[in-house]
Amino acid sequence: MRLLLIGGNGFIGRFVVAALKQQGHTVAVFHRGTTAAPAGVDEIRGDHNQLNASAEELKRYAPDVVIDLVLSSCAQAEALMSVFRGAIRRVVMLSSMDVYRAVGIFQGREDGPLMEVPLTEDSELRRSLHPYPPEVLQVLRKIFPWATDDYDKIPAERIVMNDPELPGTVLRLPMVYGPGDPLHRFYPVVKRVADRRRHIIFPETLAAWHSPRGYVENVAAAIALAATDDRAAGRIYNVCEEPAFSELEWARKIACEMKWDGEFVVLPVEGTPRHLLKPGNAAQHWTASSARIRRELGYKEPVAIEEAIRRTIGWQLENSPAFEFLAQFDYPAEDAAIAGDRQQT
Prior knowledge:
The chain is an alpha/beta fold. Helix content is about 35%, strand content about 15%. It is built from 13 helices and eleven strands. It has helices at about 15-20, 55-60, 75-85, 100-105, 135-145, 155-160, 185-195, 205, 215-230, 245-255, 290-295, 305-320, 330-345; strands spanning about 1-5, 25-30, 40-45, 65-70, 90-95, 170-175, 175, 200-205, 215, 235-240, 265. Strands 3-2-1-4-5-6-10 form a seven-stranded parallel β-sheet, sandwiched between helices. Helix 3 packs parallel to helix 6 (about 155-160).
């Protein structure tokens, strides 16, 4: 098959390219040219926000399937379908589990009772659009430059899934970790272990919170599978590891791999240093089910979770985040909290 990846040279995209190339497919990447495209692929340069300007060149490549890894808004989705309608077999859109109403409740942006988990593809979506306020989007855009001011996957999904002429597939992704993770999700634990901290604190709310995760090579394998299997046409799939672990369980897995012999300390919120508290209603879990893609397409993770954790730790030890992570660390405050907890007990 011939596949075109829009935004295919980033964290997830380079692993998707590798998976598709390994399967013998021909791959091209459409991107702005600010970073190098993966080796061994064709390259088309242009702006996602001005897709029509590159329409002729994109059609000339004649892909069978287009995978949009960075679709951010309704306007981008409308342009995507307009450019490729009648020219390709299918569009695959990468979405996010932030479409679910459970995420809005966690963020405190939606009222109502807690949503039932695990979340399935039929779970209720957010009622409010545009889930991130402008100040949050400004920070996110430093990490994900493709995010637009009108970012929201919900209206984009509707455009892709309801086109009468061009079939679509939507993949709702979890929190993706692994080598190259721009959010450095393992960093708070890896750094503390590497710094030989004797205690690592979790507030009791965060310690018990469950969220969907996926190792980047495994997520890429799911994307490659859905893009090359025609049974995925017209379908929406959650992609995530199962079972889901709590934040404390994840930290313990990382610490075990690093052979740390310290102690995790779970404190009540009022006894936890402020820099370790996270906003949100942690009573609302995000646990999700990926049973549909496993059942319908036969998806299985090619990389075991133990190896995934090992590879991610190795990369994280060699790659510190560039900015905005120092606020997560205040060792004197953490030591004082531990001492205060010991005195009370």
